[in-house]
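queue> pop job 88
queue> type: inverse folding (structure -> sequence)
queue> payload:
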């Protein structure tokens, strides 16, 4: 159980390798990272006993930018029939688990395998329960089976409170038919990712104020209006009529990079496609000057050195806040609905860190 498997968006295996190798080095966990291009996964192979467990204990999954899911374990070759007996044999070396997810990689092969997983899940659940390998206890580790084919599976473990919220890290969000653009799902996913569900009523509350920079046609504004917030939408382009009819939106044709609200607002969101350094600078200004309390901003990724560049920008933002003597929590994730971009969430904290 000494390999760490990490799922990601196809094409970002190199970023995952760079990221996990950096964490392993800082925790002095020996091993090496590898990831085949477009395989939608990477591995960190630990060369000393207990390495994968130490790595998972030392890193919060929510801190990781590019991995969508992770698990420590080993590959198991499966026969064509009676796969369950072979799995049970291997599971003898695993702790009793509290939940089971069957996962595939985000590739065409993975999509084809998901039908097999659906059929396999019920008999496997039954057998695991009968053998006492699976009990209803959410505090126990989650058993994550990532199928690479019908004959090969990664038998993995992860702590439910330190791994993805959804199988494969992919939230199943329904596109709201009245939303004016598919981008709407990016902001909804960001909220699921960054704001605990039991805090939505307080932090995404009716009558809160928000500024949406680069708002047109209004997918993100739709999410804010859906929470009954009062939105100032900044864009030279037109906003969807249906949103304007809500009476909750003021549309200003202005430059998102120079606009400042007359009074501080609760939320600033920004989906302008620009050089990432410009969007990062917006975050520094809005949070640093107290123009908003929380923000969700997209950072478009450069062509090369994508992980290094995101890290550099985040470090610069953080230094700016330290210099101002203010505390801000900073999170960054490549969401499922992100393509060549990552999404940042920032929240201003009080002196006690709340
Ligand atoms: C990706 S789209 C935003 C989509 C929007 N979030 C939605 O969900 O419908 C980017 C928008 O940024 C706007 N934009 C580009 N540069 C801008 C600037 N300097 N100030 C304000 N808006 C800008 C564009 O007009 C475009 O409508």
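queue> result:
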């Amino acid at each position: 159980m000494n390999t760490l498997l990490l799922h990601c968006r196809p094409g970002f295996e190199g970023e995952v390798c760079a990221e996990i190798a950096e964490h392993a080095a800082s925790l002095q966990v020996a091993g090496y990272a590898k990831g085949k291009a477009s395989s939608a996964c990477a591995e960190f192979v630990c060369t000393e006993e207990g390495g994968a467990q130490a790595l998972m204990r030392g890193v919060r999954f929510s801190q990781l930018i590019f991995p969508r899911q992770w698990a420590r374990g080993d590959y198991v070759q499966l026969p064509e029939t009676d796969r369950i007996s072979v799995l049970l044999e291997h599971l003898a070396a695993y702790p009793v688990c509290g939940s089971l997810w069957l996962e595939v990689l985000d590739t065409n092969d993975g999509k084809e395998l998901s039908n097999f997983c659906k059929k396999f899940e019920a008999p496997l659940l039954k057998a695991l329960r009968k053998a006492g390998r699976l009990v209803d206890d959410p505090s126990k580790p989650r058993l994550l089976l990532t199928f690479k084919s019908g004959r090969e599976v990664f038998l993995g473990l992860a702590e439910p409170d330190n791994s993805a919220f959804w199988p494969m890290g992919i939230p199943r969000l329904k596109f709201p038919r009245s939303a004016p653009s598919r981008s709407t799902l990016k902001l909804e996913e960001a909220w699921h990712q960054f704001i605990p569900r039991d805090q939505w009523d307080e932090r995404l509350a009716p009558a809160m104020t928000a500024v949406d920079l680069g708002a047109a046609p209004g997918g993100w504004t739709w999410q804010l209006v859906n929470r009954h917030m009062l939105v100032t939408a900044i864009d030279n382009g037109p906003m969807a009529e249906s949103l304007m009819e809500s009476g909750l939106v003021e549309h200003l044709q202005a430059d998102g990079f120079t606009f400042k609200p007359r009074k501080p607002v609760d939320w600033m969101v920004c989906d302008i496609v620009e050089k990432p350094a410009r969007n990062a600078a917006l975050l520094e200004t809005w949070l640093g000057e107290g123009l908003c309390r929380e923000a969700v901003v997209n950072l478009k990724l450069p062509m090369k050195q994508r992980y290094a560049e995101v890290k550099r920008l985040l470090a610069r933002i953080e230094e700016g806040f330290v210099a101002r003597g203010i505390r801000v929590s900073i999170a960054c994730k490549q969401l499922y609905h992100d393509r060549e971009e990552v999404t940042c969430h920032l929240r201003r904290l009080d002196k006690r860190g709340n």
